[in-house]
Amino acid sequence: MTVATPAPTADFTGSPARVLVCRGCGTEYPLAAQHACWECFGPLEIGYDPAALAQVTREQIAAGPPNIWRYAGLLPAGLDPADRVSLDPGFTPLVRADALAAELGLRAPVWVKDDSANPTHSFKDRVVSVALTAAKRLGFTRFACASTGNLANSVAAHAARAGVPSMVFIPADLEAGKVVTTAVYGGDLVAIDGSYDDVNRLCSELVETEEFEDTAFVNVNVRPYYAEGSRTLGFEVAEQLGWRIPEQVVIPMASGELLTKIDKAFSELVEAGLVEPPAGGWRVFGAQSAGCNPIVTALAAGVDEVTPVKPTGIAKSLNIGDPAAGPYALAAVRRTGGWMAEADDDEIREGIRALARTTGIFAETAGGVTVAALRTLVKEGRLDPAAETVVFNTGDGLKTLDAVAGLVGPTYRVKPSLKGLRAAGVMG
Ligand SMILES: *Cc1c(COP(=O)(O)O)cnc(C)c1O
Ligand SMILES: [Zn+2]
């Protein structure tokens, strides 16, 4: 494996970010466009100055805008609004889901954090806004990504808003709803005849080339900055609960990064003195589809190593067969006393319908995976039905209509007359 030469180090003055630190061996590097450790090839993440994080107050956050930038003091970039490359995502609804709780047999409050309400209708707007704001600071002049769908939408839209050229790489077999909602923004869209893992490997090769020197791949060469944007979901849930951390969270996993970063956000809020942890701590639960379950399989087998799979099934946004943050997701779930569950395609469809029926939220397949996993975790006694639980819906059902299109439709088909309505039983 070769490692990209970092682009010139940009000035991150004013941000609480201090270094890039290897998640494997702890080696530190200056803030730059680098994503892998030269010592052990482990992934890098942002290291903050704890004193700078501890200076942030609830009052400062409350005085900020109603989007992720209210947490700018906790992010690696974007403190100055003029620097931001952003659709201003975040501060999405946290919806109390009593009917869903009743259906699944939970006795304590259940909340759905509905990130389909973001500008391009998935949680990816959070990570892209942070990644591209950092990318601009690092001097990149073109934006790109390897995507399972939602990331493609978000990068193309952010590039359009910023007036920056983009090139987005996707597997050719993505849902039409995700291809159209990327292409419409006008950047280059490259469909690869292969899996997401093929696309990702190709992009890892591209960032090394001279032709792509000017290009920030949000989830490759600026991945450490990208990953930090997911923390805003953890910050928001805590703030929206009145500065409390819920006892249990259920999170969908593709690379596993989102799960690790929500857990990290909770830890940081406690360390910064912004919240008290729940008396028994919080427990983190992960969800994958049965067609792409390498992290769930590793947990069930009691091993640290995640063996890659060839993904199948309808939850395409989660179809990463070789999940980069898999071992860290396992560690977070084990450390907090949580668990993981998988859902097959029929369970995913039923999960989508159950959430829609009980909350009025229409989730994409990833949301169906998460609701189905919640059902299984309760049934298996892994998740405490008497503890407060937050479930993350990360995407919008309008992008994956085919998942349920054949299962739901008009209740009646009737001639346009009262007689016709009566005959069909519409009037009782
Ligand atoms: C990307 C994505 C995820 C998970 O992302 P990771 O951080 O890679 O685990 C979850 N849900 C949806 C809808 C996504 O698009
Ligand atoms: Zn290392």
Automatic annotation (TrEMBL):
This is Threonine synthase. InterPro entries: Ser/Thr_Dehydratase, Thr_synthase-like, TrpB-like_PALP, TrpB-like_PALP_sf. Belongs to the threonine synthase family. One of its GO terms (biological process) is L-serine catabolic process. Its EC number is 4.2.3.1. Keywords: Lyase, Pyridoxal phosphate. Coiled coil: none annotated. Residues 86-395 form the Tryptophan synthase beta chain-like PALP domain. GO terms for molecular function: L-serine ammonia-lyase activity; threonine deaminase activity; threonine synthase activity. The modification N6-(pyridoxal phosphate)lysine is found at K124. Its cofactor is pyridoxal 5'-phosphate.
